[in-house]
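Sample A.
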Amino acid sequence: MKHKRLPVSINLALLVLLIGVLSSCATSKPGAAVQKKVQGKTYVIVGASSGFGRGMAEQLGAMKANVVLAARRTELLEEVATKVRAGGGQALVVTTDISQPDQVQRLADAAVQQFGRVDVWVNDAGVGGIGRFWEIPIADYSRMIDVNLKGIVYGSHAAMQIFKKQGTGVLMNLGSVESHVPLAYHAVYASTKGAIKNFDQALNQELRLSGLKNIEVVTIEPWAVDTPFWTHAANYSGGTPRMAAMDPPSKVVNAMVRSSVRPRQELPVGWKARGAVTSHRILPHFTERLSANVVHRYQMKTAPPAPANAGSLHQPEAEGRGVADGVKARIKAENKQRREQKGK
């Protein structure tokens, strides 16, 4: 008796489901074993004023780590430092624009001077731009590249100088699911995230060939997440910044803390990110087309109107101060209002 072959789409769905089940432990809250390894270690976190960086800093503080907090918004860094200290950790605030190499070097020097070493360096700072490629100003693209790519290079270079002297260290750079699946209306942002993946892969090979086996580079690749990224992104799309099926930031923060003591070279975070990466490996054109259609519907067709703005690219914004930012709830309310208006 001949068995019918399942359609490719069903096979792919089953594969994504299996990946989700197998990867769930990576995003759960780290337990006592991880906490024991974290305690007393020194972390530098660039981008610590909100989002993943803030979430990671506060969790590390509760695990009694030393945390060096870097970002542009000094008052928020001081707020995070208070929480780190309240949790039992130590904190040092160093106001830093990662796009400025002299400021990054000052950060590295301050961390070593205060704590004697750096065990983990996290480059989490990043800025986005949403809209048709030809409608976003060149100045905004230049700033995105300065922060998302050049900044990662500057931070990684400073970290490597420290790690080589110590003989050990973990460098963690924030990529994205867009390191694999570039999204429409995110062209330059996606290109910087793809570059981070390639940079980290090459760096890992250089470390291997140089015999520096105790220095490791980790690329974290989240799905779209409910953080202040969407409030801070430059937006020329004509609609409020949004994306489908956002993850909570706790998933990514948990994965980052765990990966800091159990490094893996590349970590798509959560079942959606893993599923998208796997789908792209199997059916790249289908995955890119489907992803683009989803973004087009959410961002260009159904988003409520919003004025063009450069977000926090050139100057820090007062808004977007927490780990989460209520974007998922806002999108849900917008969708509900849209359905109600259509029903009238």
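Sample B.
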Amino acid sequence: MPEFTLSLLFQLLPTALLLLGALVLPILYTRVIRRILDGLHGHLTEWLYILFDSYVQPTALIIRATLFYIALVVVPFSFANTTYQTILRLLFDLALTFLLGLGAWRSAPMCRLLLRSAQNKLDLTTNNTMGRFFENIFRALVAVFTGIAMLDRLGVPVAGLLTGAGVAGLAISLAAQSTLSNLIAGITLVLEHPFGIGDYVILGSSEGTVEDISFRSTRIRTTDNVAVTIENSKVCSEYIQNCNQRSSRLWQFTLGLTYDTTREQLNKICHDLAQMLKEQPTVRADTVTVTVDKFNDYSIDILVRLYVTTLPYGEFLEEKSRLNLKIMQLVADAGCSFAFPTTTLDMPAQK
């Protein structure tokens, strides 16, 4: 009996050593590779570091699965027959395919590098919508191809499944044309990047600051603090005006002076007003024009046109207020008055 026990233990020794290695070696491997990657982080390109880092855990699991597989193959039991070997090999192949797909799944952050290399103007630091968008597409493709590989290993007729999936996909696409058009429009917005998060845009009859861009829609915050959600397909069909991409803002207004203003006063006001505006640091001096525009029903209109380099809307309003006060003082110093609608009644003298 002791001889039988020793013989059995001797036969089980390789299996026990392999099982022990399956428990210990992946841990040691992970620690060593992590330390090597940390040391090489400054020398590797970012995409290569992400790729290696994504496969550290899956390769450790592959080592564990391989050692478990070998341990179960060499086990000296009577049930280690052909069927047992076939099932064990199938399970190992499935695990290997899954773990390789897991590594690809974990490398999805490389999609953000593609956005950055394309000089995308979306603010991915504060809003990760587009980053998640491409990561989800990448992971969906990885899941599909991994699933197909595993089904093929199981002997499932993948070609027939793909044909059926194509027919089902066609039916779904016909039933969800609006959703698909918005999805395609969202991809178009990412590729063409006409605006980004935080930009002030005008989309048809809506204007405001872009807060979010999702798979289906774009949300902007109007000047009266209302959140407006617009479908991406409608955004792409509109004329998109990105106010943040301009170098200056047009400011055009009319000053109405009373009809008792003399020609000399008009000349002085036009000259002084143009000079005052050209001296402002926020005004492009070469764009300032001040002209007597027309004779209105109750006023002589002076047309003022200029470009202001202050771009943020709130700061632009503050600059307008400051300049308006200067204009008001300038008109008062010239001895002129602003016109307003008036009516004069001539009463006939009583006889």
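B remarks: Residues 118-127 have pLDDT under 50 and may be disordered. The two ends are 152 Å apart (CA to CA).
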